[in-house]
Specification:
Blueprint lengths: L15 E5 L4 H6 L10 H9 L7 H11 L1 E5 L1 E5 L9 E5 L3 H4 L6 E5 L1 H15 L3 E4 L11 H8 L3 H4 L1
Parallel strand pairs: 1-2, 1-5, 5-6
Antiparallel strand pairs: 3-4
Amino acid sequence: MPVHPFEPVYHKHSRILILGTFPSEKSREENFYYGHPKNRFWRVISCLTGHPLPEIIEEKKELLALEGIALWDVLKSCDIEKSSDSTITNPVPNDLSIIFDNCHIEAVFTNGKKAGELYRKYCYPSTKMKSYTLPSTSPANGRYNFEKLMWEWSVILKYLR
């Protein structure tokens, strides 16, 4: 059973928390969130916030810090085939209190339906904070082109500005 390979990213001034499900194979290889070159997460965040597209991990962390975004995944470990959320079994949630105890989180957003379902089932009972499910930025989500993703994800801006 794979275990989440990297730490959450947050700062004392983080105002929103964005949660995925579990790192993809490519993200685990790259050793950071949304490492697949076709995942649109970093492009969406940089376009929405007006920052240049971050290329390296340090630039990604800097962008998150500048905008008050905490980033992690719902699951600490699970059984998963390749990178397919639909194959997740034996989920073990992360303890989100590390973020909630150190930041003033005003809103929780989940990246995709599966992350939303897992958050509601395993994390909401302890956080008591409703989450907003946003369409997945994964390349597997062909129903949403980039412009439609930008429109849906723009809801985060009211917490960042």
